[in-house]
Amino acid sequence: MYGKFQKYLQDELKAIEEAGLYKRERNICSPQGAEITLEGGKKALNFCANNYLGLSDNPRLIAAAKKAMDERGYGMSSVRFICGAQDIHRQLEKAIAKYFHTDDTILYAACFDANGGVFEPLLTAEDAIISDALNHASIIDGVRLCKAVRYRYANADMADLEEKLKEAQAQRFRIIVTDGVFSMDGNVAPMDKICELAEKYDALVMVDESHSAGVVGKTGHGVAEEFNLYGRIDIHTGTLGKSFGGAVGGFTTGRQEIIDMLRQRSRPYLFSNSLPPMICGAGIELFKMLEESDDLHTKQQENVKYFREKMLAAGFDCKPTQSAILAVMLYDAPLSQKFAARMAEEGIFVTGFYYPVVPKGQARIRVQISAAHEKQHLDKAIAAFIKVGKELGVLK
Ligand SMILES: *Cc1c(COP(=O)(O)O)cnc(C)c1O
Prior knowledge:
- By secondary structure, this protein is an alpha/beta fold.
- It has helices at residues 2-18, 59-72, 80-84, 87-100, 111-116, 137-144, 158-167, 191-200, 223-226, 256-265, 267-270, 277-292, 295-314, 333-345, 375-391; strands at 35-37, 43-46, 104-108, 128-132, 149-153, 174-179, 204-208, 235-239, 250-254, 325-331, 348-349, 351-353, 363-368.
- It folds into 2 domains: 24-52 and 294-391, Aspartate Aminotransferase, domain 1 (Alpha-Beta Complex), CATH 3.90.1150.10; 59-292, Type I PLP-dependent aspartate aminotransferase-like (Major domain) (Aspartate Aminotransferase, domain 2).
- It has a 7-stranded mixed sheet, with helices on both faces.
- Strand 7 (204-208), helix 9 (223-226) and strand 8 form a beta-alpha-beta unit.
């Protein structure tokens, strides 16, 4: 049997390659950070990690992870409800709830699982899910696993959302679902308007804080802080894999009964292993650190502002951003790939995106700014952008 299937896979892989969509991986041989070392010893500056607060190699988190491993072991060898829950799992859940000002939290192996397991336990075919067109793949998959009627509104388009809410009055319960920050443009969802519409049309509100947590809001606590919406958002999902240390782990945090029901019925929680103790130990330490000081968030914000202003002054076309993500517009797909490749040769890692990841004719370089970046890193990246921009005719 494999012969025929192998031929089919080989042809498909070749088609992916010919379309220029084949993904290759570069191996890093150092901790994740602003400066990384590649296989072979070459160094580079990293501007394409979700390491927004620069915590991926933080000594306090590493020490807390080691301590948890020494005291609580390596793995749990169980799902939570059989014998996979330690006191530190509950402590981390409570720390997350405190951070987001919610009632309670449920942990998952990843935010992909949190989103995959949030809809089906709560909603039925009688209900409606109204989802932003640019929501993350894991939300789309979670929606697919649920029998609720689906509506999709154009990205952050409140007139379209209102239309969909009117149509969805036919269903019993409605939930509006959005990413907090959209990862291609770096724009923040208009949560204040979303909450107003939700109240007008009797809908629940869910936001995925993966790219917004640690970044958006006066002290980085996410969209509820940014728009002063405490008590008005029913469900937040998020990841420990971006701002919050960058290891692994996801969560859903929100209203008590919602979290209680997920613990009873959410399949990625019930049928998948507990987070290892080291993740819980480091996570508890992380939220302690964020409570002690806002310095990392402040530095991250200053870095974005500095970088964007210098890039605009140099003549680059940058989208407005309210996050750690900066889209440098090139519009042309092959140019975006050539640009990113030349930047890599200059020792700067950025990613070129084009259709179908972004709309046709909207190709760009995405830069992700971190609190780990020092001024000298930013200046080096800007200098490389200007050099490559002139060379490729983007700048005059
Ligand atoms: C990164 C991301 C996820 C996935 O998070 P993991 O914890 O890595 O699974 C989910 N949703 C959004 C919006 C993301 O950006």
